[in-house]
Amino acid sequence: MTRSDMLAINRRWPHRGGTLEALLTATPEDQPCPAPAADEIVARVEAVSICSSDIKIVRMGASHPLFADAAADIDTVLGHEVCLRVVAVGAQQAARFHPGQRLGLQPALRVAGKRRIIGMDLPGGFAQLLRLGPDALDGYVMDVPDTLPAAAIALLEPYGCVERAWRPNARTALQPGGRALIVSAEGSEGFDLADVPDWAEITCVGPAPAWLADRPARLVDTLEQLALAGESFDDILALGSVTAQCLTRLCALMANGALLLQARSDAAQGLSQLDPARIHYDQLAFLGTRERRIETAFEPVRQRYDARPGGVVLVHGAGGAMGRIHVHRLLQLEDGPATIIASSRKGKRLADLTADFGDLAARAGKRLVVTDTDSLADTVARLAPQGLSDAVVVAPDPGAVRQAAGWLGHGGLLAVFAGFPYGERLSIDLSRVALDGLRLTGSTGCSLADMEYVLARVSSGQLDLSANIAAVGGLDALPQALKAVADGSVSGKIVIYPQRPDLPLAPADGWTVAREAGLTG
């Protein structure tokens, strides 16, 4: 590389698949950063926030669900929650970008139909400079104002992810052109579908329902045949007294983005088994009805995604940064719940929740109840004797998800926010989806629109992100910061300023543009 080709020296912290302990004892690399190609830009990383996912990525390595489409060898730079400042622009991007422009980034890309994530399988923000090509620049960046701290801009992505968890994040209707599986058990003849989608392929286990009329359908004797053939389906309709074991098998046959619809009038005996990672990562939809008309499963009352107004909601695992964001959102949600129960296993985190959000709850006219996990069952029984209206589980523990599901009342919503490795098992009564309107949702990542929504609330003064900025430091303090996140010794977010590598890690309270002066460039 000639001197004229080199833009600057880029200090960055690579991750090549080693252990967390190895990363904590490593040192950053200084590498030459070439000038951008014609279709690229190079941006300065003004601030990058540490996500608990960064720790999970290191610990899980190539087995992490989001590495499913990546190469086996890991060689990347972590850090996906960033604030960027453009420093150089390729000729083909000059009409849209210019040096000095400030950008926010939504890091979860779709490239040729595959998931690619900046800060995971693509180099991210634990670096001084970040190169973005056309895949990222076309629909994944947004202009952001100079009036907000870079730290707040970096937090738009995690706040956007929390926003996404409470918005429609899975399919809400049957899919014409998809593959359908219809399972008919005893009592199935009592249910009717008036508007049959134009499915590309229909498979039936049990008698084909009369409402299929003359639609061609493949008849199969057992679900085991489909599982052995490795088949998956976009729409699965379970009609009548389908057993809990059958529901377990149907969940395993759901394609990514699939919908499982139950129409039944009685409860399944026992619990079904479901992989919680599939709820979180694969956008699975669960709907149901006990009415004769199957279409009633799609009525708005059975499609709720946000917290119930005036209800009692549990944030299970509220002590970590993402759990705190859920608490923060619910406290400031217009027409939101009346009571928020925030649970955590760590004593200091419990105290910090009360200290950081108690006054906000009082101003919002909400009741914030902070409790440790040992007292949680008694707290839920006392505050929600008819069952919780909503629960979001931030802790990656199938037992916590199962516990929260059992506490939900009629029509309760369970949001699986924590990321799990594929292959774990969640025991749950899925027949409740049809019988009493149980909502079961999950999400990962966010959209640019979610981040823009959060930015609008921050810019208008409706949302103050500084309450969740717990500490700041320079790039060379990254190991210490990662260890603090891994140990849970810091409540809230830690923000790294790559342009000030020597900045020591220190607590931050009431972080502002003025306090950030001199750290971003």
Structure description:
This protein has 521 residues and is an alpha/beta fold. It has three domains: 233 residues, Medium-chain alcohol dehydrogenases, catalytic domain (Quinone Oxidoreductase, Chain A, domain 1), CATH 3.90.180.10; 123 residues, Rossmann fold, CATH 3.40.50.720; 118 residues, NAD(P)-binding Rossmann-like Domain (Rossmann fold). Strands 4, 6, 7, 10, 11, 26, 27 and 28 form an eight-stranded mixed beta sheet that branches. Helix 5 crosses helix 9, helix 5 crosses helix 14 and helix 9 runs parallel beside helix 10. 50% of the residues are buried.
Explain briefly what this protein structure is.
The protein is of the alpha/beta class and 521 residues long. It is 25% helix and 28% strand. It is built from 16 helices and 28 strands.
What structural keywords apply?
Rossmann fold; 16 helices; 3 domains; eight-stranded mixed beta sheet; alpha/beta; 28 strands
Give the C-level CATH assignment of the largest domain: Alpha Beta
Low-confidence stretches: none
Distinct helical segment count:
16
What is the CATH-assigned architecture of the largest domain? Alpha-Beta Complex
- The number of domains is 3
- Helices and strands: which structural class? alpha/beta
Query: Which oligomeric state applies?
Result: single chain
Task: Please give the share of residues in helix.
Answer: 25-40%
What is the strand tally?
Answer: 28
